[in-house]
Structures are given as structure tokens and as C-alpha cells.
Fold this sequence. Notes:
Blueprint: H1 11-21, H2 25-39, H3 49-56, H4 60-69, H5 85-101, H6 112-116, H7 121-133, H8 157-164
Helix pairs in contact: 2-7, 4-5
Amino acid sequence: MAENRARKSGFAAEAFNKVKAKYDPQLASELLNWIKDLTGEDISTDGDSKNFYDTLCDGIILCKLINVLQPGTIPEKKINHSKMAFKKMENINHFLDSVQKLGVPSQEIFQTVDLWEQQNLTSVCICLQSLARKGSKFGHKSLGPKEAETNVRNFSEEQRRGGATVISLQYGSNKGANASGVNFGNTRHM
């Protein structure tokens, strides 16, 4: 885990401190509250990074969250309650695979080590926030702004042909006010 790693120094330490400074305890607290409401688990909703990590690091709560949003996504026999590190990391991987299937964009999904080794808890928050926006899609309380829905429009062939005769103003117009006749500066003497 994170306490077994060597301390970062130089450029690596600066980069790590920048990433760590982006962590938002208020957002983490809101996400933990959302998880607590959905799963019914008795978890602390303090947004402190230590509490956030301790609550989610074994991946069990995350797997339960997925199963609340879409029951049966992660079978109970796949969720590991073992104390072994790789089994806990496996739970996080099950969560990440399921989140991608539920529609969270790949650029908003964190890597297992971001949570397991506390390398980037901000990316964990971003992933959970993206999942929380999709809550209403699965009939549960969502968190954050409502996601846009597709609005597919089907035009008949006649409507498509009618649109081809219209010249869009994007192509310009020779009507109305224009700059013809404007002479700026000195004229060119030949």
C-alpha cells in the first residue's frame, strides 16, 4: 500500500503535491453521503481524504453501490471480503469494469492504483461524480447536473431536398450593409 513506498522527491514530489491539492473534501463528503443513501451502509461521510480512502479502499462499498444502481451487475460471489491486497484491488477492478458498462466515459475512470495507493483521490471523486450523474437513469437519486439525453430527429427525403435549396447565412450574403466603398488609409498611387 501507500505507506510502503519511498517518499517522492524533486519534480515527482511537486507533481504529487499539485494532484493532492486538487482534492475537494466537500465534494468527497457529498459523494459519501450519496453512497450512504443508496447503499444504506453505515459509513462516515466526513470528506477528509483519510476517511474517504479508508471507506472505499477495499472496494466492497463500491461493488455494493454498483449492485444498487443495477442489481446483479457484480455477483455476490465475485465480491471479495478477504484481507489480501490483491483481492481488495480485484473488487476495485470489478467496480471499474462495471462503471464503464454503465456509461461513464473512459476519460473519467480512475486507475486502481489511484485509489489503492492514494495516488489520485481526485480522479476517484471525478469517477464517482460521473456515476452519480447517471443515478436518475437507473431510477435512483442523482447528484450534480442532469445529463443531456439524445434527441434524434428523422427527416423525410422531401424535407432533405428542400433544405438543399436554401443558402445558409454561414456562406455569407451580398445583401444589407457591407464594407464596399470603404477606403481606409492612403490610396495606392501608381
